[in-house]
């Protein structure tokens, strides 16, 4: 899928899929909110408000109040692509969230997911 298609997808369509992925593996919506807030700097209430808005996935990341500096420590493969090798910074940030939710779904402890 080309980057522009991903960037133009509605946040309100993509984010519930991330929550479902975690919940299928007995993790909680709250944990997905926590990793998303950690990565982007949005508060839980801001995230919930965005689910009712028309913001695109690209704009969600472009407008993030404070992308976490430790996101550079997120490594590994997502969809067969190494996160650290993704050249487009916006796509890399999007894939970082995918990777965090993957780690959550695989049962990793929150301290490790949040790179503490």
Quick summary:
The longest helix has 17 residues. The protein is mainly alpha-helical and 116 residues long.
SSE diagram, text form:
Elements: H1 3-8, H2 11-24, H3 29-40, H4 44-51, H5 57-62, E1 77-78, E2 81-82, H6 89-105, H7 110-113
Antiparallel strand pairs: 1-2
Helix pairs in contact: 2-6, 3-6
Mean pLDDT: 95
Determine Rg (CA atoms, Å). Answer: 13 Å
Strand content: under 5%
Q: List segments where confidence is low: pLDDT < 50 over at least 5 consecutive residues.
A: none
Assembly state (oligomeric): single chain
Shape: globular
Q: Strands of the largest sheet, in order across it? A: 1-2
Total count of helical runs of at least 4 residues? 7
Report how far the terminal alpha carbons are from each other: 33 Å
The count of DSSP E runs of length 2 or more, i.e. the number of strands, is 2
Decide which structural class fits the backbone. Answer: mainly alpha
Order of helices and strands: HHHHHEEHH
Taking the sheet with the most strands, its summary is: 2 strands, antiparallel
What fraction, in percent, of the residue positions are helical? 55-70%
Describe the model.
The protein is mainly α and 116 residues long. It is built from seven helices and two strands, in the order αααααββαα. It has a two-stranded antiparallel ribbon with strand order 1-2. A hairpin with a 2-residue loop joins strand 1 and strand 2. It is globular, with a radius of gyration of 13 Å. The mean pLDDT is 95.
List its traits.
single chain; 116 residues; mainly alpha; two-stranded antiparallel ribbon; 3% strand; globular
């Amino acid at each position: 899928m080309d980057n522009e298609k991903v960037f133009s997808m509605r946040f309100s369509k993509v984010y519930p899929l991330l929550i479902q992925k975690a919940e299928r593996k007995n993790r909680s919506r709250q944990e997905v909110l926590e990793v998303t807030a950690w990565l982007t700097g949005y508060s839980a209430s801001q995230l919930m408000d965005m689910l009712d808005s028309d913001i695109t996935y690209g704009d969600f990341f472009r407008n993030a109040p404070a992308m976490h500096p430790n996101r550079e420590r997120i490594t590994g493969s997502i969809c067969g692509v190494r996160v650290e090798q993704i050249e487009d910074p916006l796509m890399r940030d999007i894939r970082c969230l995918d990777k965090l939710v993957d780690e959550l779904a695989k049962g990793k402890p929150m301290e490790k997911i949040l790179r503490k």
